[in-house]
Design brief:
This protein is mainly alpha-helical. About 80% of the residues lie in helices and about 0% in strands. It contains four helices and no strands. α1 packs antiparallel against α2 and α1 runs parallel beside α3. This is DMT family transporter.
Length: about 110
């Protein structure tokens, strides 16, 4: 269950990171509220997940999910470059997340 909560926390991390772009420096009230809500949910779920998972592993996976998701949505939503090198390094993060899950007994 902790791995599922950690994954959901990572999704909310993506949400608040993308929300920062839409909030225009936290000056737009609705996107700012959504950003803050997503941030709180992400942190609470991370805090619950680390009760059963090593903090180093959980934090690396949480930030990795956030980084991969935010970079991917940046390409789709904000027309950020999708160069081969960028996609390669994003995939390296994905392999790292999967590897941490496998070596941490997270089946």
């Amino acid at each position: 269950m902790s791995w599922i909560l950690l994954f959901i926390a990572g999704l909310f991390e993506i949400g608040w990171a993308i929300g920062l772009e839409y909030s225009d420096g936290l000056s737009e009230p609705i996107p700012t509220a959504g950003t803050v809500i997503a941030l709180v949910i992400s942190m609470v779920l991370l805090a619950i997940a680390i009760q059963d998972l090593p903090i180093g592993t959980a934090y690396a996976v949480w930030t990795g999910i956030g980084a991969v998701g935010t970079a991917s949505l940046g390409i789709v939503l904000f027309d950020e470059p999708a160069t081969c090198a960028r996609l390669l390094f994003i995939s390296v993060i994905v392999f790292g997340i999967v590897g941490l899950h496998l070596v941490s007994g997270g089946h």
